Every structure is written in C-alpha cells, then in structure tokens.
Amino acid sequence: MIVSQVPLHEVPVVPVGVEPWPLVALIHLQAGIVILDESSRVVFVNEWFLRRSGKQASELIQHHLTDVFPHLISSYFCSRLALSVKTGFPAMMSHSLHAPPLPLYMPHLVGHPPALLSQTVHIIPMGKQAARQSGRQFTLVQVTDVTPTVRREYLLRTRVDEMHHMARVDALTSIGNRREFSEALESETRAALRAGESLGMLMIDIDHFKAYNDHYGHPKGDQCLREMAALLKRVVRRPRDRLARYGGEEFVVLLPGTPLAGVVEVGREILEQIRRLEMPHAARPGGGIVTASLGAVALVPALPEDGAVLLRQADEALYAAKGAGRNRLASQSAGVTELMA
Prior knowledge:
Elements: E1 2-3, E2 6-7, H1 23-27, E3 32-36, E4 42-45, H2 47-53, H3 57-60, H4 65-68, H5 76-87, E5 91-93, E6 119-125, H6 128-134, E7 139-145, H7 147-168, H8 178-195, E8 199-206, H9 209-216, H10 218-235, E9 242-247, E10 250-256, H11 260-277, E11 292-299, H12 306-323, E12 329-333, E13 336-340
Parallel strand pairs: 11-12
Antiparallel strand pairs: 1-2, 3-4, 3-7, 5-6, 6-7, 8-10, 8-11, 9-10, 12-13
Helix pairs in contact: 9-10, 10-11
C-alpha cells in the first residue's frame, strides 16, 4: 500500500496515537486531504490531491505549501490557515465567497484544456488541548470539488433568467410586454419624481388592424406586428427608452427625461416611418396602406401614482387621434388636445 507514491512505513510523520493502516481510507478518499505539522510542512497528502495538482508526493512531503504553490504567499487561504492554527478553531472557505485557492484541475481529458476546480476548503486544526497532550500540532486541510454543484447552480440561474426574460418579452415581436412596461413605468415614475424631470409617453395603435387580419389572415397580421415592432425599435434608440407591445395591435413607448415637444418629435418620426413602409391594406375604408394613430403626453410627476395618470392621458390622446380620422398624432397638455396629421 502506498501513500501518494510513498510507502506507509516511510511516511515522515504519523499523528501520535494513530496507526498507519487507517490512513488507507484517507489515501483513497474522494476529496483532497493534506495534513500539515506545527511548522506548516506537509506530512501527508492523498492521491486525489496529487492527481488534481499534477504533483508528485516527493514535491510536497516535508515542504511548505507556499514553497510548492508560491501564489499562496500572502493569500487569504494562508491567513485563514494561520488564524485556525493560532486559535484552534476550524475555518471554511466557501466556493460561493472565494475564488479557488489551490491550483487543482479536473483530470485531463483528451482534446480539452485543464479546467480549474471549484472548491470548498475546510481547515481543521488538531485543537490546543489535544496538541498539548500529544506534544505535536497537526492541521488537516480538506478540499472538496464542488464543480458539479457550481454547474447545476449556473444552469438553474440561467433557466431562471430565461424564464424571467420570457415573462417580460412579447413572444411574437421580441419587445417588452405589458408586464415589463408596467414595471418600467413604475420605476421611471419614481426616478422622474426624485429628479424633477419630465416623463413622456407615446401610445400607438395600428389603424383598422382587425380588418387587416380578417382580409389577409393571421400569419400576415403577425408579420405586420413584427414589422411594426422592428420599425419602432429603429426609432426608439436611447438606452433608457422603453418600448412594449401593450396589447393586440397597440404599442407603447416610455421616454424618460423628455418634455412634450420631444415626445411629439419622436411620434411624428414614427408616423412618417410607418407611412414610408407602404404596407398594402386593401381592407381599410377607401383602401390604401397601413397607418397608425398616436397619442403623445408628458408630465413632471408630483406623486408616485402619476404613472397611471400619464398612461390614462396617453390613452385619451390616442382616442382623440382615432376619433379625428386616424393616421395622425394627438398630443395632450394641461387638458388641451392638439392634432397633427
């Protein structure tokens, strides 16, 4: 039987009161085991640790870990080790809080580069009373490979992120959905309230969309909505601006830090870009192309609930545009509605 290529009877130090044969369990344990003496020299190292460190037993036995792994000098691992030896209390370095302290790698796979193991490290000193009784001081360092756990956690986080994304993105158009917009409206209203800034909003409704769907079919209707969303994304470009499909053929744009004049400017560009698409709409009254109606509003919030006020005003402006004949923009300020064809 060997201990890391060193016969058991040749192991430099065996803890007092422990026969060599129980070390067989430590040799084959599926975790890294290193035992240090009172001078922090290695007196035992098992096969698991050697395979993953790429070292021979002779390179570790009777050497300081910092001689073998110089990067450990002044490391958090060494400071925790010194504190545990001094106090007699064990310590743990969790993978979730600390980078892997030891250069231990997955056993080499052909065609794959070495991968550093995610590690949880336990430092277990012998204890002061036991050390006094035995006249020796030993410290056990146990390294557990938590790479599978880390990978599972990563996959779970990724899945949660995907589900979070799916819950806030409209599947058809790949822009925000009503839920995402409602959350953005709440947070941006609070931000505008703190900063004393104007918060602008546009509501956009595709004119006679039901007639379009009935005439061309739902696949063409879906394509129309996707093209409209793509057009809006090209116009609404600022990082903080929020674009969402609010429902059916209705879209909404939130424009933080934008006064009414700026909201109207964005709305007029959207109106013009939709007309330039020249998407045929034979089912609209009089025939022609796909157009849209827009409602534009802005306010400086005075209360956290003013986001709902802004949304209601945008909806009122939109219906004013539709009531005036569609294919136009209506802006509302202080209860006064202005129409722009």
